[in-house]
Amino acid sequence: MNAAPLKITLTNLSRLSQIDFNNLGFGQVFTDHILIANYAHQGWQSAEIMPFKDLSFSPATSCFHYGQEIFEGLKAESLPNGKIGIFRPYDNWKRMNQSASRMSMPEIPEEIFIDGLKKLIEIDQAWVPTGEGQSLYIRPFMISTDPSLGVKSSQTYKFLIILSPVGAYFSKPAPLNIIAETHFSRCSRGSTGFAKCAGNYGGTIFPANEANKLGFDQILWLDPYDLKTIQEVGMMNVMFVIDNKIVTPSLQHDTVLKGITRNSVLQIAQDHGYSIEERDLSIDEIFQAHKQGLLKEIFGTGTAAVILYVQSLTYQSQKIDLNTANYQIAPFLKDQLIKLKKGLVEDTHQWLVSV
Ligand SMILES: *Cc1c(COP(=O)(O)O)cnc(C)c1O
Q1: Of 167, 201, 252, 306, which residue has the fewest beta carbons closer than 10 angstroms?
Q2: What is the mean pLDDT for each group of 10 consecutive residues in the chain (355 residues)?
Q3: What is the DSSP code string of 125-188?
Q4: Ligand 1, from 91, 200, 233, 237: best to mutate by most atoms within 8 Å of Cβ?
């Protein structure tokens, strides 16, 4: 796949000086530039870095109606050597193309996703925050753009990258109280759970709000196939420490997002001699392990929050309480991963791509 050469148009009025870097929040502030690439006639026609701006579309634009939309989320940090380290962008690029294939959308060439991203970050490098817990959140996404109400693959698409300097996801991450959901489901086998497509998220907002009203922070999603098999927690992968092993749902049913944080955490754990298991895991097994005193930790993994600890898990009339102050493995893995992203421990797997 050959991409058109990257065109660059720079802003003559940076907004950087107006930004309060002590109050970034998450995904609220965007850098001066964006990348937009256009697909038509079965090929990528153009790719351009340009000043951040609003876009206008026909009200009939297909993504508004049938949701051919996919996205990615990754981060970059400033490194001690003055460069900027993008964490595992090739993995996000590959995953985005797997999502594209599932949603019948075109794959994005490396020249646009990787080279375009590097150039965009180079241009907006002054926006990469340097404060404690801060990073540059990168949001690549693709939409279908045919102005037509037919339910079919669009012939035209736009791929975009926007950049957002973010603070720590939660300034002090409170441990989570979660509930295993036995009525609503996130996705079924054969559906789009493994793809990062918009439709997977819209449907989870109502159940999440209902759980919030009951005092829970996030939902533990169960596979509707048996309402037992654990999938994920909220929009994070989930891990359990059982009998000193790190156990996490396998990816075999296509219902679990292939988290890059999940993969990184499992790799770091193995590098440090921990045993890991990727397999089917039922909610009953978790409660059984807890009764036997074998369940030590529950935590979620994802780019936005890195690792969040779970302090309670409710399932029907049963509840597990854990004291996260006693957690040992999750804090160790979190610390290692954060240091690795910041270039403070050796990057033995060549996960950082520096600009
Ligand atoms: C993005 C996402 C994750 C985490 O993936 P990372 O690559 O680690 O950020 C987990 N679950 C869902 C449903 C997601 O959308």
Answers
A1: 252
A2: 80 95 91 98 97 98 97 96 96 98 98 98 96 93 97 96 86 88 97 97 96 97 98 98 98 97 98 98 98 98 95 98 97 96 95 97
A3: GGGS--STT-EEEEEEEEEE--B---SS--S-EEEEEEEEEE--SSSS-PPEEEEE-SS--S--
A4: 237
What is the structure's pLDDT at 170?
56
pLDDT at 169: 61
For residues 194 and 110, give the distance between their C-alpha atoms in angstroms, rounded to a whole number: 21
Coil, helix or strand for 302? strand
The β-bridge partners of 69 are: 143
C-alpha of residue 290 to centroid of ligand 1, in Å: 26
- Which helix (H) or strand (E) segment holds residue 284: the answer is helix 283-291
Residues in the chain: 355
Using CB distances shorter than 6 Å, the residues near ligand 1 are 73, 196, 232, 235-237, 257, 259-262, 301-303
| Dihedral sign for Cα atoms in the order 255, 257, 258, 259 | negative
Q: Are 77 and 354 in contact (CB under 8 A)?
A: no
Are the CB atoms for 178 and 208 separated by under 8 Å? no
Residue matched to tokens 């001690």: 80
SS3 content of the chain, % helix, strand, coil (to 5): 25, 30, 45
Q: What is the C-alpha to C-alpha distance for residues 237 and 250, in angstroms, rounded to an integer?
A: 10
CA-to-CA separations, 190 to 203, 262, 268, 298, in angstroms, rounded: 17, 22, 31, 27
Return the bridge partners of 162, or none.
139
- Cα 318 to ligand 1 centre (Å): 28
How far away, in angstroms, is 7 Cα from ligand 1 center? 31
Q: Which residues pair with 77 in a beta bridge?
A: 85
Residue 132: the pLDDT is 85
- The pLDDT tens digits of the residues spanning 223-273 come to 999 999 999 999 999 999 999 999 999 999 999 999 999 999 999 999 999
Return the residue matching tokens 């006693």: 326
